[in-house]
Every structure is written in C-alpha cells, then in structure tokens.
UniProtKB/TrEMBL annotation:
Entry keyword set: ATP-binding, Nucleotide-binding, Nucleus
UniProt cross-references to Pfam families, sorted A to Z: SMC_hinge
UniProt GO BP: chromosome condensation
SUPFAM superfamilies membership: Smc hinge domain (SSF75553), Tropomyosin (SSF57997)
Protein name: SMC hinge domain-containing protein
C-alpha cells in the first residue's frame, strides 16, 4: 500500500511535469509565431522604406529637372505675355484707326490693361468729336450714346452695363445722319463706332 501511494505521487509529479511542458510548448509556439510575424513585418518595413527612398530619389531628380527648365519656362511665359500684349494693343489700335469695330465686352475679357485704356480712350474721343459737331450744328440729328440717353437703376447698373454692349452705340435720327457721322470719323481718322438710326428701329 505504501508503494502504491508512492507510485501515485510519482504519477502526479509526472502529470504535473507533462502539463508544464505542454504549457511551455504552447507558449513557445506562440513566441515562434510572433517572431515570424515580427520578421515578416520587418521585411515589409524594409521594402516600404526602400520604396520610399526610391520615390524620394525620383522626386529629387524631377525637381532638379524642373528647376533647370524653370528659367526657360519663365522666359517663354514672359515672351508669350509680351506677344499677347502687343497683339491686343495692335487690335485696339486698329479699332482706334477705324478699320473695324469690336464690342467692348470682348475687350473686357482681354488681359491687356493698356489695350483697354486705348479702347475706352478711342470710344471717348469718337463720342466727344461727334458731340462737338452736333454742338456746332453740323450734325443736328445726332442724339448721343444710347447708355447716356436714359437712366438705369443703381442696383441693375452693373448687370445691364455688362450684358448690354449696345449701350455704347450712338443714336441718330436717321441712318443718313449715321452715315454722315461715319464719313466724318473716317475722313478725320478719329475712330469707329456703331450707330442706331431711329428710322430703322
């Protein structure tokens, strides 16, 4: 009976040892799994780092290339702006010389401030010259600029002035008077304008 008791105690010790070994084995498997995951993450991190370094190197190369091209691009832009300015001014001068007329809304969309000044100065010169002829009694059938012949409510002024280019047209009693105005402007090389003859309205 004493031997059985000793045997049972030994079996108990063996079972406890096996249990501890099983726990240790499970923990070891967990650690191994975590180690593998950590190695995988480390490899991915290295790969991502290399990718970032490559992209950074590529971006630096692109930036250097752009920096080299930038002076030429700036020069080309300045040249294009200068060419545009010359073209706009040339077009405005043609209008001022009476070769053809352009609606003022078109000039508002152009970027040449000097061209705008030329255009509006030309328009003012045309109207001023014609009104002097009217005051002298040489063109009695001339009434003036359409936009000056009526009042526009302040709250609608900007909208109507922007949308209605015809406000800059010059009103005459007849188309015959309008033709007289055109001939006067051409003869004196003052400019050009668009006329409205009330006999044709």
């Amino acid at each position: 009976q004493e031997k059985e008791k000793q045997l049972m105690e030994k079996n108990k010790d063996v079972n406890e040892t096996k249990s501890k070994m099983d726990v240790a084995k499970s923990e070891l498997e967990i650690y191994n799994s975590q180690h593998k995951n950590a190695q995988t993450q480390l490899r991915e991190a290295h790969a991502n780092l290399e990718s970032v370094i490559q992209k950074q190197t590529q971006r630096k190369s692109e930036i250097k290339s752009i920096e080299k091209e930038l002076p030429d691009l700036k020069n080309n832009l300045k040249k294009a702006e200068a060419d545009l300015e010359k073209a706009v001014q040339g077009e405005a001068k043609l209008v001022a010389q009476g070769f053809y007329t352009l609606d003022s809304n078109k000039f508002r969309k152009l970027k040449g401030k000097q061209a705008l000044n030329i255009f509006f100065q030309c328009r003012g010169n045309v109207l001023e010259a014609l009104m002097k002829q009217k005051a002298a009694g040489k063109i009695p059938g001339l009434y003036g600029r359409l936009g000056d012949l009526g009042a526009i409510d302040d709250k609608y002024d900007i909208a109507i002035s922007t949308a209605c280019g015809a406000l800059d047209h010059i009103v005459c009693d007849t188309m015959e008077t309008a033709q007289t105005c055109v001939q006067y402007l051409k003869k004196n090389n003052i400019g050009a304008a668009t006329f409205i003859g009330l006999d044709k309205v």
